[in-house]
Amino acid sequence: MERTRHPPFFWLPQPDRNDMLTARMKKIIRFCAPAAAALLAVSSLCAQPAPASPASTASTATPDAPAPPELYEREGDSTKYVLACTLKSMATNEEFQKNVETLRNQRQLMVTLDQRQKVAITQPEKEALKASIKALEEKLRENENTMRKEYGFSLTRDYLLQIATSRVYVLLSEDDYKKLSEEDKKKPDYIISRPGTGEDGKETTFHFRQEAVVEGIEANENLNNEIRAINELRQNKNQLEIILKRPELQKTTNAALRKKYETDLAYVTDAYLKKTDEAFKTYKFSFVSTIYLRYELTHLRIALDEKGYADFLAKKKALAATTDKK
Across all residues in the chain, what is the average pLDDT? Predict the structure, then answer.
């Protein structure tokens, strides 16, 4: 399992894990919720295997799940989306996210290697970078073909990932985890554990307990918006607390400046507490603890340009005509 530092307040199994992505890449793939991680080393990326086929994971359909509409339009968005595939289990969704992350990291690495090649001074260095770029191009092409075949996915297309069912997990303290019965610990998908580094710098394991299952695209969008709003308030609160602890502000003779920061902190803290309290009343679990989301049912949609939409309508019309003849 991938190791991480002390967990942030919101973990998402999302593919947006690279702060170094170009503006074009960020536009190409749009997802409903962001996350971030560092670019992997050149050697490890070049050696990465092709994305795994979803056949390698349990693709269990959600019982009685309504069929998603073939064509989809978002309110306030003129773009039309057509369904590419539906991912029907947490394992399949997590496999897909890992595969997308691999592609995006490889594409970004291509940009990085190309930039290094342009400023390389010695011929041996240029040749080594050229060989690395060629090897990575072949690996990226292979991985893209796999993703296109299995998911209908390509880095050159604009996508929308809709969350239809998610499971919400909340971080447990060590004491709360110890209080769990062995029966609870063995329940499928009830407790999940992730390795990491604690605040004391030592290796530890974080345990999360399932608190809720959120059904429906709109309900999941509302939940994600709620979490993002609370995270923004928390980050602002933490930043103001850090500023007020700075030695230069502690010693300042500018009382008005210090008062301003204290007033801002009081306002943000009040807004944060009210927001978390309202969220608790709505969802019945704490938003103060670290939250970890796992996606169980998602719909991956392709954005259609004018030609793509015209082709879609033509094919639909031809299919209807064939059906009528039968």
Answer: 79
Nearest to 104 by CA among 26, 3, 10: 26
H or E, element range at 211: strand 203-215
Which tops the pLDDT comparison, 241 or 1?
A: 241
Measured CA to CA in angstroms, residue 247 lies from 49, 241, 244, 265, 300 at distances of: 50, 12, 8, 17, 50
User: pLDDT per residue over 149-203, tens digit each?
Assistant: 888 888 788 888 999 999 999 999 999 999 999 999 999 899 999 898 888 888 9
Bigger pLDDT: 271 vs 20: 271
Q: Is residue 232 part of a domain?
A: yes
Is 4 inside a domain boundary? no
C-beta separation of 34 from 15 below 8 A: no
Beta-carbon neighbour count of residue 257 at 10 Å? 11
Do 67 and 182 share a domain, yes or no? Answer: no
pLDDT digits (tens, 9 = 90+) for 44-60: 223 344 455 444 333 33
Instruction: Domain of residue 86: give its range.
Output: 10-164+298-310
Q: Are residues 24 and 158 in the same domain?
A: yes
User: Which letter does DSSP use for residue 49 in this model?
Assistant: P
In a domain, 1, yes or no: no
All residues at 6 or more sequence positions from 193 whose CB lies less than 8 Å from its CB, including other chains = 205, 206, 207, 208
Whole-angstrom distance, CA of residue 296 vs CA of residue 204: 27
Residue 318 belongs to a domain: no
Q: How many domains does the chain have?
A: 2
23 plus 118 within the same structural domain: yes
Asked whether residue 113 falls in the same domain as residue 123, the answer is yes
List beta partners, residue 299: 86, 162
H or E element, residue 229: helix 217-244
pLDDT confidence tier of residue 66, bands split at 50, 70 and 90: low
